Amino acid sequence: MNKPVDTPSDVLGNSTAARTSYDPAYDPLVAQRPGHGNAYAPTYWIGTAGEPPADDGPITHDIDVDVAIIGSGFTGLSCAIFLAQEHGIKATVLEANRVSWGCSTRNGGQAQCTTGRLKRSQWIDRYGMDTALKLHAEVCDAMQTFKKITADIDCEPQPGGHLYIAHKAKAMPALEKEAKIMREIFKYDARILDADTVKREFVDDKEAAGALHEPEGIGIHAGKLAFGYLRKARALGAKVHPSSPVMGWETRNGVHYLQTPGGVVRARSVAVATGGYTSPHLHPQVKNRLLPILSNSLVTRPLTPAEIEACNFRTHQVITDTRILRHYYRLMPDNRVQIGSRSAITGADAPDDKYKQFLINDLHRKFPALTGIAIDYSWWGWVDVSHDMMPRIVQPDPKQSIFYSLGYGGNGVMYSAQAGRRMAERIAGKASDTGLPIFNSKLPYPNMMELVESQAFAPFRRLGQRFLYRWYHLKDEVF
């Protein structure tokens, strides 16, 4: 049940099977390219989504297009959808491997009403009150966009909100402060729950010392959502080409020449939507602008009624905890438990079974009744974390028709739909000036590396990440 999925698409026959097997040690800071027709990771989402829909097959000859989108995940496909729906532009989507091969089919399926890694109180501290209020309005609008675009996609939605559980008593004051800010400043109906209420009315997470509950939050089946986006984009006239990695990129006289194994795609505009799988060699505008971070996830066998009762699962809402190296988890529609958290530092280390065991131990600590339960699916994937913890949907150089939407930091399931919409507006020349920094500034370089633009510096980034993870672990579990 946990083997790579590389089956061809439907009987139309225009979608290719995987050319190469799944590479569990892939690392975007080490690999020259993200691959060429690689098989899907062995995720629950791919294993239970059904046969992948038809696509348009690999690029086989030189073509001219108005808009090329690099990356066929949630962002790339939603951008293609909105370009067609709202601007009458039929985009061409280029994917290195299988459709939605990257983070879009490796995440936890949690659609939360936020974007990036910062809380609302941190928006105020960084940007000031006016901008923070605009950001809140933007993510609330984004949630409505997400609900609308997914309304006709059978992605097993689990609505009801988001439960943000304090994993220790010392975390409660910060949650209480955040809830007050949400209610009083942003008029967002967050409420604080004590430990007894959480365990009695929601779930008996043995670590829970209380929780913040916010009204918006939806769990989804990531594979079915990705495949639904693919069907919708193609129905609107977009072309989606898997096994078509961009191996070279030149711009001459305002035209972008994207070299793929099957031919050159000549595009008037290019949108980059490659997430945590962004190659440092893709284009100078995205080089060293992200720190890809691994996240592990696993899914149990279906729980029995007795096990559900023992854990007192009374909600299917999406749940996270207050660790810096946070856990995200929920009871799925088929009564399996999905749980995820941070993983190894490098791709080479990712297949080490100890990281899976760490997560199993975390599951047992939260839910002792599940000790020894069979794990049916286990995988990991790369998260696109920006160096200032906030995404960018931007045209980085007004003289070049290049756009990117990157840096969600693990909160892209919901916001990627809005990001696709916002990027489509910019491509079509219809974007309004909101004054929000996520739309009018580039992804920053890391402060200590502003002068370093070589891939050779990647090991030093990873060394710093190791020290940070150790510090975060101490803050999460000891202090």
UniProtKB/TrEMBL annotation:
Molecular function via GO: oxidoreductase activity
Organism this protein belongs to: Janthinobacterium aestuarii
Keywords (A to Z) from UniProt: Oxidoreductase
InterPro entries xref list: FAD-dep_OxRdtase (IPR006076), FAD/NAD-bd_sf (IPR036188)
Uppermost EC category: oxidoreductase
A Pfam family recorded for this sequence: DAO
Assigned EC number: 1.-.-.-
Domain FAD dependent oxidoreductase: 66-426
Protein name: FAD-binding oxidoreductase
